[in-house]
Design brief:
Elements lengths: L1 H15 L1 H5 L1 E6 L12 E5 L2 E11 L2 E4 L2 E5 L3 E5 L9 E2 L4 E20 L7 E6 L6 E3 L10 E3 L8 E9 L5 E11 L8 H26 L1
Antiparallel strand pairs: 1-13, 2-3, 3-4, 3-8, 5-6, 7-13, 8-11, 8-12, 8-13, 9-10, 9-12
Helix pairs in contact: 1-3
Length: 218
């Protein structure tokens, strides 16, 4: 009986961490080459995950597809709106530039790397909403770009398959160099049934041990 309980405990322990083992991390590097500006989505792949990246603009409360996007060597993703847009970064010169990320499956945003930014720049994250294909502004609408910004600090709303990141405040300008996400099993907590199985098995072992001790002492 004890051997059976030990076997159940081992299975429960393995299942408890199965979700963590299934999760994978992908980093998309947008700095490796300079491409032509395009109004069509650009496709990128990392590991078993892919993402389509396109340009858009934001004027509260609307987001609309517009402009063109490209990668620039050593800098990253930039957006241009017409011939008059002289700043080829993601900026607020002609509306508030956005970069839309459309992933092949649900992800959890981990971090983003910016280049060519200043301390007074501001960026915004639009999150996947309950309505397919719709975006909603995130809670942190006045964050400052940093070399590497921890997106997990924005909370559980940074999970989904559809996001946008762009310039918010007037005068803001920056490039997106890298984006890192978790995919596969994006939940970082153990599975509740596995925890119950594991706890039950341990409890059973304790009960059997106690019964044997009692029997011996009597």
């Amino acid at each position: 009986m004890i051997r059976k309980m030990i076997a159940i405990a081992s299975i429960g322990f393995a299942a408890m961490f199965a979700s963590q083992a299934n999760a994978a991390t992908a980093t998309f590097d947008f700095t490796t080459e300079t491409s032509f500006f395009t109004a069509s989505p650009m496709s990128f792949a990392s590991g078993g995950l892919s993402v389509d990246v396109s340009s858009a603009a934001y004027a509260d409360p609307f987001v609309w597809d517009n402009g063109a996007i490209r990668t620039e060597l050593g800098k990253g993703l930039g957006v241009r709106f017409g011939a008059g847009d002289q700043d080829l970064a993601i900026d607020s010169e002609f509306g508030k530039d956005l970069v839309i990320f459309d992933f092949s499956e649900d992800v959890s945003l981990k971090s983003i790397t910016f280049t060519h930014y200043e301390d007074n720049d501001r960026f915004i994250v639009f999150n996947d909403s309950a309505v397919e294909g719709n975006l909603q502004p995130g809670n942190h609408q006045s964050a400052s770009p940093t070399g590497v910004f921890d997106l997990s600090t924005l909370g559980p709303e940074v999970m989904g398959d559809f996001f946008a990141i762009g310039a918010l405040a007037r005068g803001s300008s920056f490039y997106i160099a890298e984006l890192t996400v978790d995919y596969g099993t994006v939940s970082a907590v153990p599975l509740p049934p596995a925890m119950l199985l594991f706890a039950g098995a341990l409890g059973g072992l304790g009960w059997i041990t106690r019964r044997r001790k009692v029997a011996t002492s009597s």
